[in-house]
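TL;DR need structure tokens for one chain.
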Amino acid sequence: MNKFKYLLHSFLPLIAMIAVQAIVSFVSVLIWAIVEWKGEYAKVNFENQVLKFSNDGVVVSLISATFTTMILGIIWYKKVKDNTDEESTDNKILYTSSLNCIKILDIVNYLWVSFGCTLVISIALMFLGRYIPNEMADYEELILVSGIGSDIWVILMAVMIAPIGEECLFRGVTLERTKKVGKFYVANILQAFLFALAHMNLVQGFYVFLLGIVFGYIKEKYQSIIPAIICHIAFNIFGQIIPSIISGFTPSMLVILFVIGSLLIAYSMKYFSKLDREQN
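>> reply
TL;DR here they are.
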């Protein structure tokens, strides 16, 4: 019965995030529209007015919702972490100090695993696009409408702000809930699945599910949310750069890069897996 209760509780961060984002997006765009509609938009014809308003409105909505999600995630995670620290009697908890997970070798492996994930996912999406063109078109339209890759504020939001809120909510709050449902590998898969659901897009859901598993494993090994946040930010930065670079590569070159990316992930995950043995 308790496991079922914690299973239901694990859905709360996802539901809260969607609800808060919807409410904040609506309210922020409404306030912004009232302020701006008769100002800058009055200088252009009605058709261009609506187009400009729609584009700018999406940016306002995304930025406000993302900042709110970050605040929600930080507050909620802090509360869960405080409760977990009070209940914990395990003297073998790893890397409990935040500074211990910001060593040079650790950071190098954060970058390796993030770079490897970027290569593998980017190349996989390029090949998948041949078999699911409609889904890829929907994904590309989502990126285009959101302004990711073009608007500097949206890029900053997606790269720096969103990872903090998402890691706090999913690797912080959700993972702690799902760990009370079953063994860690089950808990990690479940929180990654909920993380994928939060993106509400098939293509994006596919690769963030894989990222969720990797980030969840890293968070568990360090017993800190900081490594997962660093990896998430690094992945987003690489994701702004790598796809455009490799888009013109030949299939054979892409296969080689895919293997290199896979090896980087394997090497870093092996490094992370040794943490508990080295600490014992």
